[in-house]
Backbone:
């Protein structure tokens, strides 16, 4: 029988993903699961370029530390606001392409279900490239529940 013991909720900490939090909490409680809440820092500049000093970005490493600290604090506040009474919860900041980072995290942590927001991009761009949720659903090794945050009943 399929067991849901670990749920992953990737968030960009926006109002849209915040609106999904009550649903995620309800599903987590329903399955008595452990909740993993992550936020992804997309790497706009290849780490290889930085490590080989191919470009000079003053205080880049300081900037990264500051960005991490700020995001960790925002993620901690987010989890405290929406999931404070859940016993089993983990938070993490991950780096990389958002879809790849989410898929990687889910594999590394034996996630059973990913719940994430999905907003369809309009026009040709949306149909050709799809969004992060589409890429995760197509490549994850576990079920993915994608929810349009603007369709949640309040």
Residues:
């Amino acid at each position: 029988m399929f067991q849901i013991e670990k749920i992953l909720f990737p968030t960009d900490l926006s109002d849209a993903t915040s609106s999904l939090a009550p649903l995620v909490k309800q599903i987590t409680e329903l399955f008595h699961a452990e909740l993993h809440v992550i936020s992804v820092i997309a790497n706009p500049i290849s780490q290889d370029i930085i490590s080989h000093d191919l470009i000079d970005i003053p205080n880049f490493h300081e900037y990264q530390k500051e960005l991490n600290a700020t995001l960790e604090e925002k993620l901690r506040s987010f989890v405290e606001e929406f999931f404070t009474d859940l016993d089993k919860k983990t938070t993490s900041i991950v780096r990389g392409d958002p879809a790849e980072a989410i898929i990687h995290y889910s594999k590394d942590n034996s996630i059973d279900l990913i719940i994430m927001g999905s907003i369809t991009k309009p026009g040709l761009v949306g149909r050709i490239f799809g969004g992060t949720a589409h890429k995760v659903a197509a490549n994850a090794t576990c079920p993915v529940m994608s929810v349009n945050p603007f369709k949640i009943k309040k």
The longest helix spans residues 60-83. The chain has seven helices and five strands. The two ends are 33 Å apart (CA to CA).
